[in-house]
Design brief:
Elements (H helix, E strand, L loop, with lengths): L8 H8 L7 E5 L6 H13 L13 H8 L5 E4 L10 H11 L9 E5 L7 H12 L5 E7 L7 H5 L2 E4 L5 H11 L5 H10 L4 H9 L2 H16 L5 H7 L5 H21 L11 H10 L2 H19 L6 H14 L5
Parallel strand pairs: 1-4, 1-5, 2-3, 3-4
C-alpha cells in the first residue's frame, strides 16, 4: 500500500469516507508532498473487494493483483521517460481501456501523473473520457502545476487541494526519512526543496548540496572574473537545468527584494547572502527586473520541455548575471 503521510490525514478521511465517488478527481499541490501516494492509496481503496473502514484490505484478489502490478482494471498513464511529455498515442490506449468492461466486476481506476505532461493533442483526446467515462470508472489526475491544464480538463474533475506539511511536520518526517543527515543538513535540504519533504529526500539522493556548493562557488568566481560563462556552463553539465533556473530565479527575486526593503531577513540561505547584498548594492533595479523576466521566460521553456541548447542557454544566463554589478 502507498505510504500514508501524517499531513494528509484530513484529506484522506474526506476522500475515503465518501459514500459516492466522483468520476474524476484532480489532486493538486506543490511537488514533493505525496500527491501520488495519496492517489495510489485511493486507487487501492476503490479497487479493493473488501475495503476495511477507510483503507483497502491488502489481502483480497484485487489488492494482491494491484500489489503485483498486474491488475486488469487499473491503468497508469505517465511519461515514458522522465521529463518527457505524455503522448497522444498513450492517451488513445487509455481511451480504449475506458470502454472495456471491468474484468473483476468492480470499478476501473485510472491514474494520470503529472497531468500537465500531456500536450494539447493528448489533453483533447482525454476530454471525452473525462466527460462521460464508460461504466464504473474513476480517473485520478495528479498535478503539480494545475495552472498549466486546459480549463476544460479542470472543470470536469472534482478538485482536491493537497496540503503542504507544516515546517514541524516536515522536520519530524525528515528526521526519520534521512537519519544519516544532521538537523542542519535536513533544514538546508528542506530550504532547497521549498518546504516539500519528499523533494528534500530526492534532492539528497541526487547530491544537491554538493551541486549547490559547485554553483555558488562558480557564481562568486564569475563575479570576480576568475571564470567565464562558457567554463561554468561546462562545469555544471551534470546539474539539472530546472534546478539552476530555480536558483537563479530565487536569487534575482532576493536581489530585488533587498533593493526595495534593505531587509536582511530576506537574503535567503547563508551561501549566497553576501553575493545578493553585493548585487543589490551594485546593480540597477531595471537591469535586475530585466534579468528576472528573462529567467522566468526561459524557466517556462524548460518546464514546457522545449528543445533547448543547454550550453548556449546557460552561457546567456551567466553573461547576463556577470553584467549586473556595475550597471548602476
Amino acid at each position: 500500500m502507498a505510504e500514508a503521510y501524517p499531513w494528509q490525514q484530513a484529506s484522506w478521511q474526506q476522500l475515503a469516507g465518501r459514500q459516492q465517488h466522483a468520476h474524476a478527481y484532480l489532486l493538486h499541490g506543490v511537488q514533493g508532498i505525496g500527491k501520488r501516494a495519496l492517489a495510489e492509496r485511493l486507487m487501492a481503496r476503490l479497487l479493493c473487494q473488501r475495503p476495511q473502514a477507510l483503507d483497502a484490505c491488502g489481502q483480497c484478489k484485487s489488492c494482491l493483483l494491484l500489489k503485483a502490478g498486474s491488475h486488469p482494471d487499473n491503468f497508469v498513464l505517465e511519461p515514458e521517460d522522465a521529463d518527457k511529455p505524455i503522448k497522444v498515442d498513450q492517451v488513445r490506449d487509455l481511451v480504449s481501456f475506458v470502454v472495456q468492461t471491468a474484468q473483476l466486476g468492480g470499478r476501473k481506476v485510472i491514474l494520470i501523473e503529472p497531468v500537465e505532461a500531456m500536450n494539447v493533442n493528448a489533453s483533447n483526446a482525454l476530454l471525452k473520457s473525462l466527460e462521460e467515462p464508460s461504466g464504473n470508472t474513476v480517473l485520478l489526475l495528479v498535478s503539480h502545476q494545475p495552472s498549466r491544464l486546459l480549463p476544460t480538463i479542470k472543470s470536469r474533475c472534482q478538485q482536491v487541494a493537497c496540503p503542504q506539511p507544516s515546517l514541524a511536520q516536515s522536520q519530524e518526517w525528515l528526521a526519520t526519512a534521512l537519519p544519516d543527515c544532521d538537523e542542519v543538513e535536513r533544514d538546508e535540504l528542506l530550504s532547497l526543496a521549498a518546504g516539500s519533504p519528499l523533494t528534500a529526500v530526492s534532492l539528497q539522493a541526487q547530491g544537491v548540496r554538493e551541486q549547490r556548493a559547485l554553483v555558488t562557488e562558480g557564481v562568486k568566481k564569475l563575479l570576480k572574473q576568475q571564470q567565464s560563462p562558457s567554463q561554468l556552463a561546462e562545469a555544471w553539465n551534470g546539474i539539472p537545468l530546472l534546478l539552476l533556473f530555480d536558483w537563479f530565479c530565487d536569487w534575482s527575486y532576493r536581489v530585488l527584494r533587498y533593493q526595495l526593503t534593505q531587509d536582511e531577513e530576506g537574503l535567503g540561505m547563508a551561501d549566497m547572502r553576501k553575493v545578493i547584498q553585493y548585487l543589490a548594492q551594485k546593480s540597477r533595479q531595471d537591469k535586475v527586473l530585466e534579468i528576472q523576466a528573462w529567467i522566468l521566460e526561459q524557466r517556462q521553456k524548460v518546464l514546457g520541455k522545449a528543445n533547448l541548447n543547454r550550453v548556449l542557454l546557460l552561457e546567456a544566463l551567466l553573461a547576463f548575471w556577470a553584467q549586473l554589478p556595475g550597471s548602476r
